[in-house]
Amino acid sequence: MSTEDPQAAQDFHHQFDKVWGNPRGLLALTIVNHTTIGLRFLITGGVFFLIGGLLAMLIRTQLALPGHDLLTPEIYNQVFTMHGTIMMFLFAVPVMEGLAIYLIPKMIGARDLVFPRLSAFGYWCYLFGGIILTFSLVLEIAPASGWFMYAPLSSSVFSPGRGSDFWLLGITFVEISAVSAGVELVVSIMRTRTQRMALQHMPLFVWYILAMALMIVFGFPPLILGSILLELERAAGLPFFTVASGGDPILWQHLFWLFGHPEVYILFLPAAGIISTIIPIFCKRPIAGYRWIVLAIITTGFISFGLWVHHMFTVGIPHLAQAFFSAASMMVAIPTAIQVFAWLATIWNGRPVYEPPMLWALGFLFIFVAGGLTGVMLALVPFDWQVHDTHFVVAHFHFVLVGGMLFPLMAGIYYWLPHFSGRMVNRSRARWGFWLVFIGFNLTFIVMHVTGLLGMPRRVYTYEAGLGWDIPNLISSVGSFIMAAGVATCLLDIFLHFRFGERAKRNPWGADTLEWSTSLPPSAYNFATLPECATRHPLWDTPDLQTTIEQGHHDLATIDHGRRETWGSDPVTGKVREIVHLPGNSWLPFYGALATAGVCISLLCKFYWVALAMALVSLALLLRWSWENGAHPRAAPNAEVVEGDPPLHSRTHDGPGLWGMMVTLLANSSLFLSLLFGWFYLWTVAPAWQFPEHNPINWLALMLTGVPLTIAVIWFVGVVRRLRRELTDHLQQHLWGISALGLVHLIGLVATLSASPLTPQASAHDAVISVMLWYQLLHSGLAVILTALQALRVRKGYVGKMAPYEPVVVERWWVYTAGVFWIIYAVVIVLPPLWELA
Amino acid sequence: MLSPFHPLQMALGLIVWALYFVVIYSGLSVVCTHSPPPAANAGALNTVNLALLALTFAVALSLFYQAWRGNKALRKEVASHAQSGASEAPLPTRQFIARIAVATYLVAGTATLLTGLPALVLIPCV
């Protein structure tokens, strides 16, 4: 399709709107389109930012004067805990994800993310989890143990109310959202780039988001596990963190910071991606050192996982072990410095224009470099000991987080605002906003370094006069109010621009990346036709790209089949391999998240049977979601494509769903490895850990339950191999047989577990084994259900020779489940006697 | 052996570094808890540190070897590309991957040395 006739072009776009358009009113809850979901994340994150900011103002007001009694100690504890929690979990991560969800498909030349219902589900989980958590503030029962919830302070003994439960359940709920976005972004970037966009052509922002998403996939599960264990300790008395029963509170610190330090880079990397996008545009030249920056991104992604113990330098770890983490903490500054020098070189060689986005980018450079330098100071163990838990650390991490995340975010918002709204901001108000925030921030936090060096500890609700802290605290408080005025000015500017802003012309900043080739604001399908992109600067090389896309001069122009489609491409070369058909609007993500919120609220109220019922409802909804896929009438019953186009992904053996399963299993294995780490940690380090005289698990019975599981896996692998050769005789019977065998294993596992004299409330040893076996039960149960559903789908004609894709996906789950079973067997049954022998 | 142009090579060096990091940290923790070196052997050069240093040098050497191997393959690829008369711009994907991979191996080797070298001077288990 290609037309230059305006009427024909209008009809052409009208057809696309019919397939891709967003409904209004109540039906807007069914929208799954990435543009809408991304904006919802951004707006909701903005609201949480204001709530977190309000709490910061309360803190600064309380500390402005010595002996101030605006807040009681109890409320102050809740306020600083919720300030950190909201800013980290409900603002920073979701907003960065929202920006990525909005931008990534547009930058890679796709029409949507690859799992749109997952984006919507993630958003609703985030919203409901955030509301539940924030509601605790209104009830005055908010968590009060710090944003890191250290045990034993957060345990039921020292925090007997519901505050810690709100944190643990609410945050776990919100993290579902983060991990689902992580999976979605990885697969979308790897598998749906437009024709010929090879790795070396990807915009740097996309590289940064790929690293961020992979870090979320590996980094969030340790905290999810830690939260589950701590909640099990609080609610059911399983003593993972209780020394007397063989647990260890330091395990919590490890699990928390295994997530917590990478988290800083999960926030910094997308922020640096914004900077790497903006600086070349406002310097009118390509970025200096593209390959160096890619190398720095990969290096940061890895080394940032080797720093977590630098938050624990004072807990009594041997000096040599501290030196490993100290070295890694200093090394991570090197890739960061590479990026800083690349940005400086770009500015040096360019002709900088100081538009509002560029101002925020330069503000970032100043503040982040300063924060990085105090970070290197803190990486030195003796210095860290001196300033640990003082306001110096508070000042440092605000420099890193506000400088490294908020400033680039504001740069990005000002840069992409014409994309969101089709209008330009008022430059004068924008400059006022920037300078107020910049001056206010530096006044607050530069001085706070001094307060810390003078010895003022963190998390104290007040202080006595005459300690030398009065003046610096007052200056910090004044600075924070100037910063708040700056934020208010920016918000006013952004609000007003939607009504009064000058209309943005096409590609208003003269950018080079594909997102600026959509209409402003963009349509739900981004591109009517998908262009080739074998360059890093498509819009600089082909300035009329938007016109040719709109006139239908590129690929995948057919829409009369009624399917939402985008390219599925090779992860390395970007060569098109299949057409990915995407699901349309659906209530299922909303209802699924609502049911999951029901689980969360029921657990908070200790209505455990209701929680179980809600969990089953949630599972049923998610399974229904999986049912409407592939050749289902609501997905792609008709596999016809235009001659010369590749097949639909559901008619191949290697669609994005397979990648989705693999990345999900990576996240899952990160959680399982964290559990194994917990087992070995308590075994080798916990002071009161003891193996019972006799293993409570019957080794023979457990081994026998593994036999049907292993046979089922081998059988499944064989079935998939035959399916790849298009041999589908008795496929349904095979699948029923595998499911039945899995059921035999499941029954055996339940019988073994119930026959075992485990006392999970009495010892950490039994508690960890119980969690491992529950984890196994969950996986085995899901394998049985998924396989039974596959058999039903074969019967319905949704799976078979013409649509062989789904069993390939389920096969991975079986292999993982069997692998986990035998690893559990090895560490619980085989290793302990060997250790005793050694 | 994985081809020097395989995309996994871009991360493999740092995956090895991460595994090395886990092994030395967990290994040291377990040794210090269950069988710390005897007090008479209290200097930095004892069996624990020597084992750590040996592992450090072995891992670093293998990473530098991989960087050398990748660089050799890359030069060969560039030469054959030049002989065939193809243009260097835009840089072909294979070369892009190999260049990043070589650099990553160098970074990982250096990171391994920097991580392990404190064992030359610090007493373990204190």
Automatic annotation (TrEMBL), chain A:
Sequence intervals crossing the membrane: 37-59, 79-104, 124-146, 166-187, 207-230, 264-283, 290-311, 323-347, 359-383, 395-417, 432-454, 474-496, 587-604, 610-627, 658-681, 701-723, 735-753, 773-792, 813-835
Pfam families: COX1
Membrane topology of this protein: Multi-pass membrane protein
EC top class named in words: translocase
Pathway in which this enzyme or protein is active: Energy metabolism; oxidative phosphorylation
EC number: 7.1.1.9
Entry's localization field: Cell membrane
Reactions performed catalytically: 4 Fe(II)-[cytochrome c] + O2 + 8 H(+)(in) = 4 Fe(III)-[cytochrome c] + 2 H2O + 4 H(+)(out)
Listed InterPro entries: Cyt_c_oxase-like_su1_dom, Cyt_c_oxase-like_su1_sf, Cyt_C_Oxase_1, Cyt_c_Oxase_su1_BS, Cyt_c_oxidase-like_su3, Cyt_c_oxidase_su1_bac, Cyt_c_oxidase_su3-like_sf, Cyt_c_oxidase_su3_a-hlx
Major location category of this protein: membrane
Occurrences of domain Heme-copper oxidase subunit III family profile (ranges): 576-833
Keywords: Cell membrane, Copper, Electron transport, Heme, Iron, Membrane, Metal-binding, Respiratory chain, Translocase, Transmembrane, Transmembrane helix, Transport
Entry-linked PANTHER family: CYTOCHROME BO(3) UBIQUINOL OXIDASE SUBUNIT 1 (PTHR10422:SF35), CYTOCHROME C OXIDASE SUBUNIT 1 (PTHR10422)
Family recorded in the similarity comment: Belongs to the heme-copper respiratory oxidase family.
Name of the protein this chain belongs to: cytochrome-c oxidase
Gene: ctaD
TrEMBL record, chain B:
Domain of life according to the entry: Bacteria
Ranges that cross the membrane: 12-31, 43-65, 100-123
Keywords: Membrane, Transmembrane, Transmembrane helix
Name of the protein this chain belongs to: Uncharacterized protein
